[in-house]
Amino acid sequence: MINFADISSAYNVLLPVINKTPLLSSRTFNEMTDNEVYFKAENFQRIGAFKFRGAYNKIASLTDAERKSGVIAHSSGNHGQGVALASKIFGIKATIVMPHNSVKSKVEATKGYGANVIFCGLSTDDREKTTQELIDKHGYTLIHPYDDEKLIAGQGTVGLEIFQEIKELDYLFVPIGGGGLISGCAIAAKHYCPSTKVIGVETEGANDCYQSFRAKRLIKLSSVNTIADGMRTLSVGKRNFEIIMKHVDDVITIKDEDIYSMMRFFFERMKILVEPTGAVAPTAIMKNILGLQGKKVCAVISGGNVDMTFFKQLL
To answer: Where in the chain does DSSP place strands (E)?
Structure first.
């Protein structure tokens, strides 16, 4: 299991290339929720999401032989973009396997960074099967989207930056897809402020970690149904689940329909674009799922890559 030293080392690797994203706040939102709330705005990260951190840290750790063979990743969008951009920086070939219903803007951005995009079926099983077939055929090096120590350490730098600015927090809310972001952030949070309650947030239609956390064993869903495309994994990774069980205090769920009002608040009141998955953790605070009052809390906005057709319908 990785520790904070791994996250600190990753940060030194990432410093020359990442954006140190801001912590945003809204007096209106504080009044609405009766809490002191901060948003870690990873929608301002390169590629528009936190995923660049982990992808770059992983690729930076590869041997010359691994890089020469080219890398491959499976992704609904943001991880693919992160791997594509990191590969471009290192001058290596990248192939990204994406479900055929991926957000068009994410597909185009991934191609724009120079990656070769291969489409597959909708489930994570479909992605993994297609990816493995390509690895067997071409010898590519896998850059896993969440179940990898170097990747987790890179994502954990989000938490490191939060606690560089805010020394103490009562609660930290983090969205859960495959579990890479919350794994790294939980390790960082417990290092800086052990009393901070780390809360994972999923949507009801993709609640694999919610179920797993309560059962204390890894549960894999047969299917998911959510507008948060970054949460369409059927289960969190094995490494991720071990870290979650050790460092995360609770996992909760929110309704898909509540994401819309959170996205709209970000756009109208804070003038920022946030994708559905990026709005999941803030939604848990807006709906006050835990009944908090007078607390100092932070939620991670994981990304801002919104499909414009979807956003037009939302408005």
So the answer is: 23-24, 36-41, 71-74, 94-99, 116-120, 141-142, 171-175, 197-203, 250-254, 296-301
Q: What is the pLDDT of residue 284?
A: 98
Q: Is residue 195 flagged as an active site residue?
A: no
Structural element, H or E, at residue 267: helix 256-269
DSSP characters for 37-66? EEEEEGGGSGGGBTHHHHHHHHHHTS-HHH
Tokens for 158? 């989000």
The pTM (predicted TM-score) of the whole model is 0.96
Rg, Å, the chain Cα set = 18
Structure tokens at 131: 């990816």
Backbone angles phi, psi at 199, to 5 degrees: -120, 120
The active-site residue out of 51, 58, 106, 190 is 51
CB distance 209 to 234 below 8 Å = no
Catalytic residue among 102, 183, 212, 302: 302
* 47-81 per-residue burial string, b: 16 or more CB within 10 A, e: under 16: bbbbbbbbbbbbbbbbeeebbebbbbbbbbbbbbb
Q: Tell me if residue 51 is catalytic.
A: yes
In the chain, the domains with their CATH numbers are 4-49+149-314 (3.40.50.1100), 52-142 (3.40.50.1100)
Distance CA 175, CA 278 (A): 8
Residue 117's beta-bridge partner residues? 96
Measure the CA–CA gap between 98 and 80, rounded to whole angstroms.
8
Residues 101-136: tens digit of each pLDDT: 888 888 999 999 999 999 998 877 888 999 999 999
